[in-house]
Amino acid sequence: MASADPVVLWLMEGDPAIRWPTLRDLNCAAPETVRREQRRVATEGWGARLLELQDPDGRWAGGIYTPKWTSTTYTMQLLRSFGLEPGNNQAVRACGALLDAGCWSDGGINFYPRQHRRSATCISSMVLSLVSWFAVDDPRVDQLAHHVMEQQMEDGGWNCRAMPGYGEATHGSFHTTILALEALLDYERTGRSGAAAARVAQARGREFLLVHKLFRSHRTGVVARSEFTRFAFPPRWHYDVLRGLDYFRECGADRDERLSDGIELVEKRRLPAGFWLLPQGYPGKMFFEMETPGQPSRWNTLRALRVQRWWVVG
After folding, report:
1. Cβ–Cβ contacts within 10 Å for residue 267, how many?
2. Closest Cα to residue 70, out of 84, 49, 88?
3. What share of the chain is helix, strand, coil (3-state, %, to 5)?
4. pTM over 0.90
5. For the domain 45-313, what is the CATH code?
6. DSSP string covering 211-259, please?
């Protein structure tokens, strides 16, 4: 049954990338209705615009990882956020370009072998999420998933700077951890050979975030970084509380009491009219602007509402 909530109706006036998850997560629409709307991502609105900008060689902006945010990696990350359907020919072609350009001897993704001796966990996670979501049939997908899981640290998190010669960090990074968790969830859902191991790794990774109550120092309890409380969209490689909560919702995790500080923060950001604003995003090149910073955001409103519903209803 369609919702009569004016905020939900406002969401349904947006792009197909907003409409289909609104139907699924807030309207409890029939699966075929949701799929029909999801298919429109490839032919209408933001998704169609990005697909039209793909280069003849399957890349975007002539680059694999740069320029940010118009390169192949970040354009594909955005299409993944839109929910472009798995198996889309253009997306599968781009995934092949990412694997061909980055697959490294350690099983991960290394776009910069002249600078680094090892693959970057953050980039490896982003690519794993893409090739998993878009259902790429390639043995390198399992190798990549295995590599990401191997990089999990003793505290349950992940950190790009844990590799030798690149900081050798001993504590997980919120940024890298959310990228790894999202990627392993996408991979788990493929049902491939490492799916069970990916589920176990996620449980340890979620505990890392829970120990920190999503955004606090586990030692002092203060906010670890102010940017974690800013809900930018697209978040790119950055972590924030809303992104973390949306992952917990998406994977069907238990509603742990240690998430309550994050839930309270999200609720405080809601305007009296029922919307959430879009803050200033991360600087860099964009093909086009989806929403205006400082104005009500359909992206943030959708994500916040479905997190709230999950927290209350399950």
Report:
1. 12
2. 49
3. 50, 5, 45
4. yes
5. 1.50.10.20
6. HTTTTB-TTT-SBS-GGGG---SS-TT---HHHHHHHHHHTT----GGG
Determine the Cα–Cα distance for residues 66 and 74; give it in Å rounded to an integer.
9
What's the chain's Rg over C-alpha atoms? 19
8 Å CB contact between 70 and 61: yes
Q: Which amino acid is at 54?
A: Q
- The pLDDT score that the predictor gives to residue 165 is 61
Are 7 and 274 in contact, with CB atoms under 8 Å apart? Answer: yes
Q: Residue 14's CB: how many other CB atoms inside 10 A?
A: 18
pLDDT > 90 fraction of the chain, expressed in percent and rounded: 94
- CA 239, CA 209: separation in Å to the nearest integer? 11
Question: Most distant CA pair in the chain: distance in Å?
Answer: 57
From the list 199, 116, 183, the residue with the least C-alpha distance to 145 is 183
Return averaged pLDDT per consecutive 10 residues of the chain, 314 residues in all.
Answer: 86 98 97 98 98 98 98 98 98 98 97 92 98 98 98 97 75 97 98 98 98 96 97 98 98 98 98 98 97 98 98 92
pLDDT in tens, 163-208: 766 667 899 999 999 999 999 999 999 999 999 999 999 999 999 9
Structure tokens at 147: 């590599």
List where CATH 1.50.10.20 sits in the chain: 45-313
Asked if 77 and 126 count as a contact pair (C-beta separation under 8 A), the reply is yes
At a CB cut-off of 8 Å and minimum separation 6, what does 69 contact?
75, 78, 234, 236, 282, 284, 285, 286
Residue type, 177: T
CB-based contacts of 32: which residues, under 8 Å, 6+ apart? Answer: none
Enter the tokens of residue 63.
């680059």
